[in-house]
Amino acid sequence: MCGIVGLFLKQPKLEPELGALLSQMLDIMCDRGPDSAGFAVYGAGTPGFVKLTLRGPAGTDFAALGDKIGHPVIARDTHGVMSVPVAEETTVRAALARLAPEVRVVGAGTRMELYKEVGLPADVAKRFELETMSGTHAIGHTRMATESAVTTAGAHPFSTGPDQCLVHNGSLSNHAGVRRLLAREGLEVTTENDSEVAAAYLTYRMRGGDSLGEALEHSLGDLDGFYTFVVGTESGFGVLRDPIACKPAVMAETYDYVAFASEYRALAGLPGIETARVFEPEPAKVYFWDRAA
What we know:
Elements: E1 3-9, H1 18-28, E2 36-42, E3 49-55, H2 62-69, E4 73-76, E5 79-85, H3 89-99, E6 104-109, E7 112-118, H4 121-127, E8 137-143, E9 158-161, E10 164-172, H5 175-184, H6 194-207, H7 212-222, E11 225-232, E12 236-241, E13 250-253, E14 257-261, E15 277-279, E16 287-290
Antiparallel strand pairs: 1-8, 1-14, 2-7, 2-8, 3-5, 3-6, 4-5, 9-10, 10-11, 11-12, 12-16, 13-14, 13-15
Helix pairs in contact: 1-4, 5-6, 6-7
Protein name: Glutamate synthase domain-containing protein 1
Pfam families: GATase_6
Keywords: Glutamine amidotransferase, Transferase
């Protein structure tokens, strides 16, 4: 059992409140996943630059690391964000591997920043100062581990492509076979978590030319099991439940936003919720919103 939350803003007026709203939603889902938590926020980006979200052991001196690499790092607890020119990304990744092999790149994109840690969701949100973050959309997850260890690496979200991330409640029955397919296609899955397989599968489909909506449609035929996915891209937000739809899910849509949660109580504090269209997403139906559309 895990908890999922997501918020996609249609109007700019709520963008300064995105982090505070998601933090509240994440906290309410604590009892569905007290082992670990994480979130991805799509904030401001700079054309021609890519944000690298780094994760290091406790006590990592991100300022010193930034000095060595030649690009400053904005530190938040065990994570840091480094913005580098797109043309230098490969060089910077190689330098990071050489100078600080204990530090991992957990997300990359023009706008996405990704944070996750072991601990109660409210504590994780506070450690990374989620309440202070702004942006257009965000997704979050509270984890109760069932099939892999309680580790930071095993926490959600998972990101396997630029500005792409996924959170998942459920279990895939054919993840081993999909993992082998992805390996043949050059996509490495680094954890035992089946959710990372799902994220990499969507990356694989989108590399082949699918939109997020099309990739989710294909997953209905290629991924077996019980699942609810919430997925973010640079400009988009998608939701999919498997054909049986045994995992709880509820959505709310207003003129200002689209919100998702595993339970309604995580939506109850959102502004304007009393007039929102509240509905349960249908089984095997792709829901997708895109700011670029």
